[in-house]
Amino acid sequence: IRTYKIASIPGDGIGPEVVNVTIDVLKSLQDILGTYKLDFTELDWGTARYKKTGKYMPADGLDTLKTFDAGLFGAVGAPDVPDHISLWELLLAMRGPLQLYANVRPVKNFPNVPSLLKDVQDGDIDWVLVRENSEGEYCGQGGRTHRGTPWEIATEVSVFTHVGVERIMRFAFEIARSRPRKLLTVVTKSNAMRHGMVLWDEVAAEVAKDFPDVKWDKMLVDAMTVRMAAKPKSLDTIVGTNLHMDILSDLAAALAGSIGIAASSNLDPTRKNPSIFEPVHGSAFDITGKGVANPVATLWCASEMLAWIGEKEAAAILLQAVEDICSQGICTPDLGGNVGTIEFGQAVVQAIEKTVG
Ligand code: NAD
Ligand code: IPM
Ligand code: MN
Description:
Tartrate dehydrogenase, ten-stranded mixed sheet, oxidoreductase activity, acting on the CH-OH group of donors, NAD or NADP as acceptor, ICDH/IPMDH, IsoPropMal-DH-like_dom, alpha/beta, two-stranded antiparallel sheet, TTC_DH
């Protein structure tokens, strides 16, 4: 039987709630199909570990991760630890160093699920956001001088390399090419930011020459927010910088229904390192422990993970079951329903049993 080693990192807040349900669903799915097996190892990386040991992940954490085929991550962040510490010690400490440079964030409005947009038809929102995940605004460069004086200066430097921009651009063009509409929108802010953003525009035009079958256009990020809300059908695949796509992916999820549905794959397209799959949302302190967190984002991540490791049939069955259940009005309160996290997972398993027989 095909076996894959999966690291689960539930993390903080609602992370464990959505990851545990997802693992239960994955175990049922593999039992039903009987053609492959995911071998899970839970890693206790997160704020509880930090409070005990002073570290979010052990010193050899990245080497540990490299022994797995993939990772399933929940969320990190706690009310009593500054976010820039928790995130830079765990999540951002994996994405950059493992060179998970392509962050793929698909968003759809499921049939019958209320969208934030008026008059939106089923399927009008069907986007893949591709986020540069290793450099740009998140490169970690910057500093503070003259602290404690009115002359304090703080810099937050964005670094864009030709190699870094070109590889994400090629990756995005490939995704656009693989989808029926073959349409890519490149998001920048090259009117105000005249170095890195102009490099993005130039690289887009260069790479486009190798993809004559893909139709592409450019948008400034501010105008892009309007286009997403006003003309959702005019968009398909979207590529942009680390920060721009961080912001646009929350907007995309909300427009499609809820931040609770948006999945995110941190991919190493070279497949040297394991890719890590995580919901777009965070640890959601306001609903932690209430049993109402929407597990759709994490289940969708699980489907993306199955597809990435090669189990495409299982991936499709899982995503279809999630979509069908939501479309029947069986969903968590953020989507207007009244089921809890665990009940939702059980409904998905029942739907899978019905389809697979
Ligand atoms: P958040 O995504 O945690 O929550 C924003 C809002 O969306 C909250 O009202 C929350 O209840 C709701 N929400 C989020 N996920 C939901 C779900 N699955 N089901 C239903 N409702 C959901 O964002 P935030 O409040 O800005 O951040 C909280 C903490 O999480 C911070 O520490 C932040 O740094 C961290 N964070 C971590 C990640 C990550 O680990 N990938 C991502 C974003 C934020
Ligand atoms: C996300 C999150 C992270 C990001 C934060 C928590 C560092 O918002 O994955 O979208 O900005 O990448
Ligand atoms: Mn975000």
